[in-house]
Structures are given as structure tokens and as C-alpha cells.
Amino acid sequence: MNIIVCIKQTFDTEAKISLENGAVKEDGVQFILNPYDEYAVEEALKIKEEQGGEVTVVTVGPARVEEAIRTALAMGADEAIHIEDEAAYGDEYTIAEVLAAAIRQKSYDLILAGNQAVDDGSGQVAVRLAQLLDIAHISTITKLEIHGTQVVAERDAEGDTEIAEASLPVLVTAQQGLNEPRYPSLIGIRKASKKPLTKLTLADLGLSADAVGRKVTPVEVFLPAAKGAGRILEGDTAMRVQELVRELRQTSKVL
Amino acid sequence: MTSVNFDLSQEQSMIVKMVREFAEEEIAPKAAEVDRNARFPIETFEKLGELGLLGLPISEEYGGAGGDTISYALAVEEIGRACGSTGLSYAAHVSLGCGPLYYFGTEEQKKKYLTPLASGKALGSFGLTEPNAGSDAGGTQTRAVRDGDSYVINGSKSFITNAGYAKTIVVTAVVGKDERGKNRIGAFIVPTDTKGFSVVRTYEKMGLRGSNTVELSLEDVRVPAENLLGSESAGFKQFLYTLDGGRISIGALSVGLARAAYEAALQYAKERVQFGHTISKFQAIQFKLADMAMHIELARDMVLKAAWLKDQHRPFTKESAMAKLFASEICMRAADQAVQIHGGAGYVQDFPVERIMRDAKLMEIGEGTSEVQRLVIARQIGC
């Protein structure tokens, strides 16, 4: 079983977000492997341990993302592909195109990814990738079983569970609850630096910067307004509902 | 021209990150409970073993992870920040349990006794202190007498960390006198299931209550002659070197505890409102926190310098004593000031600083008191 895991390095979930020149400031921020991608890596490793095979992690990003790659390798992935090219850091469209070009060069049975990244939370890249590769996908899974080429996954459907079936090759995205990611062991960390890591540019993938240029450009980036003091509504239920509606219409103008 | 470099290697920072996550998720939540119940968290040590942490600085051929002393010191700091008791037991296992076997054992001794410890299948311990001997090893009264192919050991040992849970312990014992009439001290590998070896009692301690500290009795404990570590007169030098290494780990543990105290105090100061402001806005509190932050930074630098020297195979006796002395004293000070910042809340068990202050005191005592560290430094600077 050849398994590919798409990963992303993201801000630490406890990092303080600040803006500078209309962009999120990265200085002094701790970066981590996106927690949803950690579930994807763990699931890949579990399948490899049960059924054998190779686990390759793929990511796009600047030099700093190598730390996230090494974390996945330390957990037990076998090798990694790192697309490091300014022109590849576009929007979801760009990343999906770049990943697809890299993954087409490999043979694969199963592709895993996180359901979303905790930074921008778009949840688009993996499903776009399945589309580009022309394979089925099952998103936000909480359980995965593979028998031969048959795949049965449970997916989180707004609190209910949906059972989906597919045949390999398939792409699945991991939701919280899929598994409990392992800590990389010390031996794993020590071995990680010796595992193969292939660095690629758009040219290596036969892509031009124009062809994968972003389709969406952020117009403005801003922090949410500071939270003011709360207000407890008083009176009986009818009065409180009336007051709440009035507040929503007039003060916060959400209605 | 850029030879001083404060960056950790990628491997070192990954180790720190892994240990920090593990410590925050698996160790810290139990810290109050193991302290309250004086319970040794054996299940934590099983997990530490699986992750390879119990043999962090031991080479892979003996079941270790082959890491360096810097990584080890940082790991101790992270574990100690989460739970002093767990940090102490961890440091004692690696520095004192594995250390003497790793540095002075023969190939056979290492394969047989070190591998289970470094690979995390069992715990190790070191028996030096006695009712009448500690830093003054000359007072050692435990005796080992050669009898054919074995040694017979008699005596007792005090304040021995981990010994109630250890599979193997290295104990020092007098084997005779040298030409000047001074005691010759040897070190012996004693499996704890040997007949005549027993735990007499488990101490009720002020702090670090989740660590296991016991008094041992050795009554006609017979071990094969091949269990002698090095030569019959090597014990003294061996434990000096072992303690030098152990001091790095107690320094690191002190930094971890100090950080825990500081972080708790900083958080509390930013939440506690008095006279219309959080108390973090008051200079009296700010100065305490600024001092803590500075001391922690300096202590860590000294610990890492001593660890670095050890990794470079250079002398580190003076630096490890300085690191341990400074770190332990700023740790006690930070714990004291953290309690002070908490006021009444710091004196009750609702906040961690009460426990940390009790834990911190041992830092100034274990692996040589502050007074002994000053003696070591004084000797090193030529007094």
C-alpha cells in the first residue's frame, strides 16, 4: 500500500496573532504540524503497520516547513516531498494544482490529508486535489477500514455518522476523533534527519508560475474587534427575547 | 568568526517540543495527585520508556536513543516544569541509574544491566548516601568482602531515589584500605531481587512526594565478582564523575521548577485585580517577575554550557557545580516569590506554587548541598 499524506505547517494553536502591513506577522511565532494533518499521518502509519507499505508526506511552503516534515518523519513516515518555490504559495487552487502535479509523479493507493488547516480553515485543498487527480474522496472521516481495495469510512455528518464506501485509490480527510496521534519517539526523531526528503520547484513539476497563479487575492486582513463587556438581559422570557432581537437589530446590526 | 551559537539543532528542538507536549498532556495533569498521595507514577515511566526518554543520552547499542547531554538537560527541564517528582525520578534514573553503568561498565555489564534500563524496560538507581556518609564518602560504612568468586555486601543506604522500583542498583562499599590507610571504595552492580537486599522504609518527604525515596538494607548480599564496576578502588572517582553529570540534571530540573513557579505567578499576577488594576501593573510585583525571568534565563544558559562541555568531552566539574548551585538557589527564590505574589492563595493547595515551593527545597540539597557545591567550586578555582 502506497500512502501519501498531504500536510501543512500552521501557527501553534496557542500563538498570538498580530498584524503587520496588512498581513499576519510570523516573527517569533511557533509553528506546528496542522493538528488535523497529524491525524492523517497517524492513520497512514497505522495502516502501514497493519498492511505494510510506504508513507510519503507532501507539503508546499518555505524552508521553515521542513520542521513539520521532520515531525511527520519522526512519527514514522518513510519519505517526504517538499515543494519549496515562492510561486507555489498561492491560494487553495494553486496548492491543489501543485500537489496534484507532485503526486501524479508517484504511484499511490491512498491519499490522506487533514480535514482543514487550523490557520485559514478553508478545507478546500484536499478535495480539490481529489478532483484534479480524478479519484473519489471521503471527507471528515472519523473511522477508516480498508479490506483489499474496498474502503469503508465513517464520516462526521453534523453530529450524525454517515458511512461511505469507495474503492482504492481514494482520498480521505481526517476529522478529530479518527485516532490519537502518537508522540514521535526519540529514535524516530533521530532517524528523521536521515530519511529522504526531496525538494522540488515548479520547474521540476513542469508547471509555470502563470498556470498556477492564485485565483483569489485577499483584499484586507483584519483582527476581530476586541470583545466588549457582556450584558445580562433581565425580565421574563418574552421581554428578554424582545430585548435580544432589538439588540441584534440595532446595536450589533447582525439582523 | 561566529563560534558562539545559541541555536538548538533541529533534532534538539524537536526533542524539546516532543517532551514538552508529552509533559503537558501526560505528566502535568497528575502532578497534584502524585504529590498528595505520595504515589510514584509508574505508568508515566512506562510511557517515557516507550518514547525512548529513559535512555536519552545512552548510545543505541545499549538500548538508548543516542542523544546528547543538551537534549537530556532540556528534557529534564520540561519534565520538571510539569512535575518535580517525575522530573527527579527521571533524572535519577538516567544520571545515577544508567550513568555509572554507561561510563564505567564493561561491554558485558552494559549489555546485561544497562540495556534494560536505557530501553525503558526497568528503572535504575544509585546507592551512595549512608547514615554517616554522603558528600564525605570517607565515612562509607557499607562493606564488600571478597569471598571466592563473589563479593558479600553488608550495610545500609539512605535517601535512595527510585530504589523501591529499581531492577538494578549500583552501590558503593568499602573493600579495604589503601597504603595510606584510607578506605578503598568500590562500586557494585546489585540486582534488587538479590537475597538480603531490602527496602527498610519509604520516607515521608516535604516535597517531591511522588518520587520514590527509600532506605535500604544490605544483609549478606552476595553478587558475582564480575559485578564490580571497574576496579576495587575506582568507586570514589566514579561517583565524583557521576555526580558531576547528575548536577547538570538537577540544575535543569531546578530551571524547570523555577519556570513552573514563574509562569504560574505571571499568570496569576495578570488575573488578580487589586486597587482597580491587575497586580502585574504594580512595580513591586513586576520587579519580582522580572528577576525570576532573568534568573531562569541565566540558570538555563549555565546548565546548557555545562551540558555542552560534557558533550565536548571537556572538564565540566566547575561548570556543573555552578549550574546546579545557581539554578537551585534561584529556583528556591522563584518558588518563594511566586508564593508571595499569590498571597494567601499561594499558601493553599489550590494553586501549584504551594507544591513547587516544597519541591524546590530539595534542589538545594540533593546531589550535594549548596555548601558542597561551593566547596567544589572553591577547589576548582584553586582555593
TrEMBL record, chain A:
Alphabetic keyword roster: Electron transport, Transport
Bilayer-spanning residue ranges: none
CDD domains: ETF_beta
Quaternary assembly: Heterodimer of an alpha and a beta subunit.
SMART domains: ETF (SM00893)
Cited Gene3D superfamilies: HUPs (3.40.50.620)
GO MF, any single term: electron transfer activity
Native organism taxonomy: Bacteria, Bacillati, Bacillota, Bacilli, Bacillales
This protein's name: Electron transfer flavoprotein subunit beta
Stated family: Belongs to the ETF beta-subunit/FixA family.
Keyword presence, Transport: yes
Keyword Transferase: no
SUPFAM superfamilies: Adenine nucleotide alpha hydrolases-like (SSF52402)
GO cellular component, one term: cytosol
One Pfam family named in its UniProt record: ETF
Ranges for domain Electron transfer flavoprotein alpha/beta-subunit N-terminal: 21-209
